[in-house]
Write a structure and sequence with these properties.
The complex is a heterodimer. Chain A is α/β, with parallel strands linked by helices. In chain A, 49% of the residues lie in helices and 16% in strands. Chain A has a single domain (2-151, 221-267), classed as TIM Barrel. In chain A, helix 9 links the parallel strand 7 (174-178) and strand 8 (210-214). Chain A is globular, with a radius of gyration of 17 Å. Chain B has helices at 33-46, 50-64, 74-80, 99-112, 126-137, 148-153, 155-163, 178-192, 207-217, 219-232, 249-255, 325-332, 343-357, 364-376, 398-404, and strands at residues 18-19, 23-24, 70-72, 84-88, 117-122, 141-147, 167-171, 196-199, 239-244, 264-273, 290-293, 296-299, 336-342, 385-389. By secondary structure, chain B is α/β, with parallel strands linked by helices. In chain B, the strands form four sheets. A six-stranded mixed beta sheet of chain B has the order 3-4-14-9-10-13, with helices on both faces. A four-stranded parallel beta sheet of chain B has the order 7-6-5-8, sandwiched between helices. The chains are: A alpha/beta, B alpha/beta.
């Protein structure tokens, strides 16, 4: 039952008085083998949940760093099946939960049911679909639930309270709060306190739902979110992959080191 | 899937924004939900606001130059020897194309929203040129996203945009054409929507953008309907309206008033690309799979992984892998027929029309529509009226056409 292991990942972090750490990297970046090594390295560095991007070329939500990663993965011929294979291979050795973050056309092209079957077989715990907003996603979310996969609804600063309540009422155990109006990887343009205020509102409405905070979080600000449920770092890691490739260094080692540092900052 | 008579095409969507329960919608990130709701509320209010309509009409008439001419192409008709060929010379609109209508309306909406910054995408450069023109007039700061490849091949329009004070942002991702420009523009709006308004340059994108654009270009058929009745005394019994289709904004406007007239055939011509090449920009003609692109469900040229495939057309304005949900709906209901013309056929059509008519010299986009008219006219008799929307002027394409024909300019 993948959804229950996902909840446990949040609870384990809470037992250590910190938020869960999530990383986002694009599956297959820069190639299948290296990507798997990156996941393993991240897991060894103590990440709680891995977000694996199933990138789409014509996305409308990714910032520059993630676009570069997506471009590299697609250029190396990565297909949706390759992403499932990477995850399946990873899950043979690691218990770390894996969430897929993608765009609707990737799921549509694969076929919703086939996609979910593959998610189950490769032990994917959750799905985030950036351009499939509530309430249009409810039928698919229901199918996810039937397969014990958490469909993670998105919330943002301009989601008004009425909509927030409706989304939360339909949401599964986990939601994702987009901390600011931007694409991924831009400089944090709102204060950590403002983000936490919004986080607290979400928790007030739905105390039992786990809320992931994402967008704009870096090593400099991560400690501010220590007492929340979870936070994601993505673009900084994708940039580290780019830098490692450019300087002919090992991306898995470097990204792993970065994650260890983030974990330490989140725990201190 | 059925059309409803008496209801404007743009309003024939369901509560989730889908035409025929299937095409269009708002498949967007949550961060765009609020600005889209805000824009939807504002537009629904403004379209019923007489002051706003008067303002729109004032600018359409005095700045854009409506109505544009409706003329008979006597020489071409004689040359082809079949149906009578007419032309709606939309290229006479200020700036040389229909894009001015959408640009003016979006600029007026932007002001009503209390915003001072507008951004938009462009392919051939027309949408960007008209938006920067309107932005200058209405004192709006303007940013135009354009694929780097298009910046290169449509340099004349890029020069115009910069002259009007717009910032032109070349987009280097993906195929560096319109598809990437639209993606980048939407990303920009995701970040800037509290202060800025976005103008989508065609009848694509989330539902509200499809509606605003088609509502704006509907000026073309509104004025043409009067011109047709002035010319023939009534709506001809057999009339065919031929329009090129890229995103589909021109055709949507050209057809809008005629949807309920069963005796008026609607023919859309997509870009078939180079002869002998498997690449094209004709998702309707070639039955491309249905997918989600730029926030809407539509027929879209893509591979089995859902990745958008590169398109190819000599015409930058038609070089788009998707197509308006309105046209998907018109195709599915059987109301319009879609076909394609190759690069070569478009060039030949440009030559034939220019040589015969002089005053009418279509850009590469409407040359595709003329190619279809040239194909079918000789098989029809003089009781059939063919009207082609010449929605762009060849001036912007002179470099491309000259090179193709072996001239040095």
């Amino acid at each position: 039952m993948t959804s229950s292991t996902l909840i446990k990942s949040f609870d384990r972090a809470k037992e250590h008085n910190r938020a869960a750490l999530l990383t986002y990297t694009v599956g297959g970046d820069p190639d299948k083998k290296t990507s798997l090594n990156i996941f393993k390295s991240i897991a060894k560095s103590g990440v709680d949940i891995i977000e694996c991007g199933l990138g789409h070329g014509a996305n409308i939500g990714d910032g520059g760093a993630i676009q570069d990663s997506t471009y590299r993965a697609l250029s190396s011929g990565i297909k949706t099946d390759d992403i499932f294979e990477i995850i399946e291979e990873f899950k043979k050795d690691y218990e770390t939960d894996v969430i897929i973050m993608t765009y609707q056309n990737k799921i549509m092209a694969y076929g919703e049911d086939d996609f979910l079957e593959k998610c189950v077989n490769s032990k994917v715990s959750g799905i985030i679909c950036v351009d499939w907003p509530w309430p249009l996603n409810l039928d698919f979310a229901k199918k996810c639930k039937e397969n014990s996969i958490v469909f993670i609804q998105l919330l943002c600063p301009t989601t008004n309270e009425e909509r927030l309540k409706s989304i939360l009422s339909d949401a599964h155990e986990v939601v994702y709060y987009i901390s600011m109006l931007s694409t991924t990887g831009q400089k944090l343009k709102v204060s950590s306190d403002e983000i936490k205020k919004r986080f607290n509102l979400i928790k007030k409405i739905s105390p039992n739902k786990k809320c992931i905070i994402g967008f704009g979080i870096t090593a400099d600000t991560i400690n501010d979110f220590k007492d929340t449920d979870a936070c994601v770092v993505g673009s900084a890691l994708c940039r580290e992959i780019t830098r490692s490739i450019d300087e002919e260094l090992n991306p898995a080692t470097n990204v792993g080191n970065m994650v260890a540092d983030l974990k330490q900052k989140l725990s201190s | 899937m059925k059309l409803e008579k008496g209801t404007p095409l743009i309003d024939q969507h369901d509560e989730n924004g889908y035409w025929g329960g299937k095409f269009g919608g708002n498949q967007i990130a949550e961060s765009l939900n609020y600005p889209i709701e805000e824009l939807t509320r504002e537009f629904e209010k403004l379209r019923n606001d007489e002051t706003f309509i008067a303002e729109r009409d004032y600018y359409f008439k005095n700045f854009v130059g409506a109505p544009t001419p409706f003329i008979k192409l006597e020489n071409l008709t004689k040359h082809l020897g079949g149906a009578q060929i007419y032309c709606k010379l939309v290229s006479k609109a200020t700036g040389g194309a229909h894009k001015a209508y959408n640009a003016v309306v979006h600029s007026l909406i932007c002001k009503r929203l209390g915003k001072t910054y507008i951004g938009g995408d462009t392919g051939a450069g027309y949408a960007g040129k008209m938006l920067s023109m309107a932005a200058a007039k209405f004192n709006l700061k303007c940013k135009i996203f354009m694929g780097a490849k298009d910046v290169e091949r449509q340099s004349i329009n890029v020069f115009s945009m910069r002259s009007y004070g717009a910032e032109v942002v070349p987009v280097n991702s993906g195929s560096q054409t319109l598809v990437d420009a639209v993606s980048e523009c939407m990303r920009w709006w995701t970040s800037e929507n509290e202060e800025a308004h976005m103008c989508v340059g065609s009848t694509v994108g989330p539902t509200i953008f499809v509606k605003i654009c088609a509502w704006s270009t509907a000026q073309i058929s509104r004025e043409m309907k009067k011109q047709v009745i002035d010319e023939f005394g009534e709506v001809p019994k057999d009339m065919k309206l031929i329009n090129c289709v890229g995103g589909g904004s021109s055709a949507a406007g050209f057809w809008n008033e005629w949807i309920d007239y069963d005796n008026v055939e609607l023919i859309g011509v997509e870009a078939g690309g180079p002869e002998g090449s498997s690449k094209h920009a004709a998702p309707l003609t070639n039955d491309s799979p249905i997918g989600v692109l730029h926030g809407a469900t539509q027929y879209v040229i893509q591979d089995d992984q859902g990745e958008i495939e590169e398109t190819e057309s000599i015409s930058a304005g038609l070089d788009y892998p998707g197509v308006s949900p309105l046209h998907c709906f018109l195709k599915e209901t059987g109301r319009a027929r879609y076909t394609s013309a190759s690069d070569e056929e478009a060039i030949e059509a440009f030559q034939l029309v220019s040589k015969n008519e002089g005053f009418v010299s279509p850009s590469l986009e409407p040359s595709h529509a003329f190619a279809e008219a040239i194909k079918i006219a000789p098989k029809l008799n003089k009781d059939t009226i063919i009207v082609v929307d010449s929605c762009g002027d060849s001036a912007k394409d002179s470099k491309i056409i000259a090179e193709r024909l072996g001239y040095k300019i």
